[in-house]
Amino acid sequence: MVDNINDNRAWIEINLDNLKHNIDEIKKVIHGSTKIMAVVKANAYGHGMIPIAKKLKELGIEDFAVATLSEAITLRENDITGNILILGYTSLKDIEYVIKYDLIQTVVDYEYAKQIEALNLSKPLNAHIKINTGMNRIGEKFDHVNNLKEMYQMDCLNVLGTFSHLCVADSLSETDIDFTKKQVDNFNKCIASLKDLGINPGKLHIQASYGILNYSDIELDFVRPGIIMYGVFGSVGDKVNVKIDLRPVLSLKARVTEVKEIEPNESVSYGRTFIADKKCKIATISIGYGDGYPRCLSGKDVPVLINNNLVPIIGRICMDQLVVNVSNIDDVHPGDIVTLIGENPLISAEQIALYADTISYEILCSLGARLPIIEI
C-alpha cells in the first residue's frame, strides 16, 4: 500500500465508499436471511485483496471466497478472520495447510474426497462440497447420489456447506434462462435427495453476481458477489432483471511524462503504425502492457482522460509507455494525471473490455503487480 502518489508513474485508486455503496445495493436485492460471501480472488479482481477484505470486514462481512490456497493464506496473514472458502482445487500435499490456517476447502469430486480420506489427516478437513449441475468444470455430478452420500459421511471431512455455479446466468436469452433454471432444479433435487437420506448438506449457495441480479427469487444461505461488488458489469450493455445502482470502485491512472510536437509524415512508437498526416502535439504516458493495460488496444483510437479532455491513444502501446494525441488540449504538461479506466462511460472497465474484445473481468484481473494501490 502506498500513501501518496507524488512519485508514482502509474497506479490504481480504489474508492472504498463506492465499495460500501455497492454492498448496500446488493443487500437490497438479496433476501434478509441470506449472507454475502465476498469473492476476493485474483487480488480482488485487481482491486487489492487486502484493502478490499479489510473494508468488507468493517462492513460486517464474515465470509470470503478465493480461488487458491495461497490467496487464503495471504488473507489470514493479514489478519482477516472469519470463514474463507477456497473455491478451487488444492494439491493433496498442501491440504494440511488448509487445516493449519483454519480454511475451508472445496471438495471438487468423489475421487478427490477419496484421496483426502487416504491422507489420514490430523483432524477433519472443513469443506464445502461442489455439485456439478451442468457447467461440467468441477464438482460431483448432481445425480451421483450414492457417491455424494459417501462423501458427506467421510470422517475426514467436516462438511459445512454445499454449492454449485451457474454458467449462463448473465444471459437473458430464452435458451439460457431455461438452462439456468435446469441447473437450479438439478441442485434443488440433489439437495432434497441428500436430505431424504438423512444427510445435512450445510450452508447452501449457487448465485454469483449475475445469479443475484437475474435470479433474485432464489433464497439460500449465501450469495457470492464478485464483479458487481466492484461496481462493474461483465460487458457493455448487459441487461439484468433487477434495478441496481453500481458505482465503480477502481480507477487506473498514470502521468504525462513528455509533451512535444511532431511534423507531418513523422511516426510514433514501434512498427511506425501511426504516421502523422499533419503537425500534431503528442504526449507520452507512463503506463503500458507491463502494467496490464492491453497492447491489443493499439490502433483503435481508445481514449484516455487528461484534464477533463478525452484524447486518443496513437501508435502501438509499449511495455511501459504509450502515446496520445493531445493536439486539441491547450494546457497539458509533464506530471499531469491521466485516467485510463474510470467512471466516465467512455473509459469504463466495460468499455475498455469492448475495445479489447474481452470482458471486464479480464481487464481488471490483468492489472499488474507493479501498480501500487491507493485508497481514496
Helix and strand sequence = EHEHHEHEHEHEEHEHEHEEEEEEEEEHHE
Low-confidence stretches: none
User: Shape from CA axes?
Assistant: elongated
Nearest-integer average pLDDT:
97
Measured distance between first and last alpha carbons: 12 Å
Number of helices: 11
**Largest pleated sheet:** 9 strands, parallel
Helix fraction by DSSP (H/I, runs of at least 4): 25-40%
Q: How would you classify the helix and strand content by structural class?
A: alpha/beta
Rounded to the nearest angstrom, the radius of gyration is 24 Å
Q: What is the number of strand segments?
A: 19
Q: Into which percentage range does the β-strand content fall? A: 15-25%
Task: Give a description of the structure.
The chain is built from eleven helices and 19 strands. It is an alpha/beta fold. The strands form three sheets. Strands 2, 3, 4, 5, 6, 7, 8, 9 and 10 form a nine-stranded parallel sheet that branches. The relative contact order is 0.14. β8 (157-163), α8 and β9 form a beta-alpha-beta unit. The model has no long low-confidence stretch (mean pLDDT 97). 27% of the residues lie in helices and 24% in strands. The protein is elongated and about 80 Å long.
